[in-house]
Amino acid sequence: MNMKLYANRFLFLRFLFSCLLVALPLLSFANTGGSTASVMPEGVPDPKDLLDILILSICIFVILVLLYMMYLLNMLMNYIKPAAARKPLFAGLIQKLSDAVPIEEEHSILTDHDYDGIRELDNNLPLWWKYMFYLTIVCAGCYIYYYHFSGVGKLQIAEYQEEVATSEKEVEAYMKLAANSVDENNVKRLIDAKKIESGKTLFLQNCAACHGKGGEGGVGPNLTDEYWLHGGGVKNVFKTIKYGVPEKGMISWKTQLSPANIQEVTSYILTLKGAHPANPKAPQGDPYEEEDITIK
Ligand code: HEC
Q1: CB of 213 within 8 A of CB of 268?
Q2: Which terminus of the chain has a smaller tally of CB atoms within 10 A, N or C?
Q3: Separation of alpha carbons 126 and 98, rounded Å
Q4: Mutation test residue for ligand 1: of 201, 202, 210, the one with most atoms within 8 Å of CB
């Protein structure tokens, strides 16, 4: 086979390969976009990303098929044309892009290097390669300006901190929701000072009229002693407040206070034990053994 024909035949394949090299990074770029905002669990691709990839893949496939059809058509045309007019597909364009010296003139760029008969050409760098290299330099400049000087682009640490802040907000919202799902079966005594303070405010607003400002008792029983009519401990107290003892003058609070509020006021009442307020009401009910003495 004629060497020239052989080289030309592979020109087109080289062209296709270059297209692929350009397309692949583009594909991976499209794949990473927008995934930070996703709420999908780790490892499960976001359907939106999948759609992007699908559309891009179809586009690339269509382009490749079109190119292949042009290639076939060109082969057919070459078949009809006289030998002198035959040309490989995109010969001119590829010639321009590669900036390679045509095979007939290669002797002009042959160097005097000779390694066991293998000789070296001093071809120009392909134009597409050279300009892509220049482009990377421009991109690097833009990148440095965008991320380090403009104040618009966020570096990894800033991005990370932003994500942490968003997550913390989500956690807070979730905890609020979770706090309101407490009931007498799963309620735990709160020890957080802020929650206790909030429980105290609720107590002074709603309960002090009958139980006294210090829980010493009045219309209602003393809440600071060890005697309980309906059981002490976080679960019993929560239950008494939630459902009340309506026939004895203690209303049910579940329509006025959220479960989280009842939990707070319960936790506050439990801190009153042994407070010895002035004018304590005489003990009522039975002494109650704290079932959970580990929390102080
Ligand atoms: C209108 C008066 C009144 C108000 C207001 C009131 N209580 Fe009571 N509370 C009572 C009475 C009366 C009892 C005793 C019920 C009984 O004899 O069974 C009681 C009982 C209790 C008990 C049970 C004590 C025990 O010994 O078992 C708890 C706990 C309690 N109240 C908490 C609260 C809390 C918390 C609030 C505010 C959110 C509140 N109460 C508001 C009148 C009141």
Answers
A1: no
A2: C
A3: 4
A4: 210
Centre of ligand 1 to C-alpha 289, Å, is 20
Task: Ligand 1, residue 285: give the atom nearest the CA.
Answer: 26
Distance from C-alpha of 162 to C-alpha of 167, rounded to nearest angstrom:
9
Q: Give the rounded distance of the alpha carbon of 134 from its chain centre.
A: 34
The chain-wide mean pLDDT, for the chain, equals 86
Our mutation pick for probing the ligand 1 site, out of 187, 198, 204, 211, counting the most ligand atoms within 8 A of Cβ, is: 211
pLDDT digits (tens, 9 = 90+) for 13-67: 777 777 777 777 776 665 555 444 445 556 666 778 888 889 999 999 999 999 9
Q: How far apart are CA 22 and CA 74, in angstroms?
A: 24
105-125 pLDDT, tens per residue?
A: 888 989 988 899 899 998 888
CB neighbourhood size of 81 (10 A): 11
Angle at 197 between CA 193 and CA 201, to 5 degrees: 170
Pocket of ligand 1 (CB under 6 A): 206-207, 209-211, 219-221, 223, 228-230, 237, 240-241, 245, 248-250, 253, 265, 269, 285
Q: Give nearest CA residue, ligand 1 atom 36.
A: 207
Q: Is the dihedral of CA 252, 255, 260, 264 positive or negative?
A: negative
Do residues 292 and 259 make contact, with C-beta atoms less than 8 angstroms apart? no
Residue type, 288: Y
